[in-house]
Amino acid sequence: MEGVTDGIRDIDLTNEITLSQLKDLTGLPNALIVTNVADAIFSDAQAKVEFERSFMEYDANADISYLKSFRRARIIFTSPITAAKARIHLDGTSHFDKQIRCYFAQPLDDDNMESSPNLELPAPHRQFLISPPASPPVGWEPVPEAEPVINYDLLAALANLAPGEAHEVHPPSDKHPGIVVHICEDPVGYATRPKLQQTTCPVRKS
Known about the structure:
This protein has 206 residues and is α+β, with helices and mostly antiparallel strands.
C-alpha cells in the first residue's frame, strides 16, 4: 500500500473532495495500524484518553483496539477518507515522548471471509524450495563420479623423502611455482614419551 499512501498526499483532504479525487481513495482501507505506542498509553487511563482524542478528532465513531505486546494500536474509521486524514496529519507526531507511525491496515478479502471465518493457507508458489520432491523427475539419471587423478610421480617423490633434507617435489615453471618439502627430524625423546593410560571400566556387579 506504499504507492497508494504516497499518492494521497497530493489530495487536499481539508477541503471538499472532488469526484476524481474520491475515486483515488476507493482502494484505501478504513483502518490504521499505529506503531511505537508509548507504554504510558497502555497503563495510564488519562494518557489513553488523550491518545484516543487525537484520532477521534477526525472520526468520533472510530473504534480503537490495543496490542500491548507489540506496542501497537488498531484504529477502524467509518470511511477511508477519515482514515487518510488521520494518517496524513498524525503520522510522525509525538505522543508521550514517542514518535508514532501510522500505516494503512491490510484490507481483508470479503469473499474469503464469507466462505470461511478462518485464515487460509498461503498459496504454495515456492513450496519446491522448502522441501525436495518425493521422487526425481522423469528422465533423470545419476551422473557417475569421475575417477580420481593420481600423480604417481608425486607419490614416488614423497616415498623417497628423508628426514632433515629438502626435497624438490615439483620444479618451478613460468606459470607455477616450485614445491619444496622440508622434512623435520624426529624430536628427541619422542620414543620414550610415556603413553596415556586408558581408564579401566568399572566392574559390573551381578
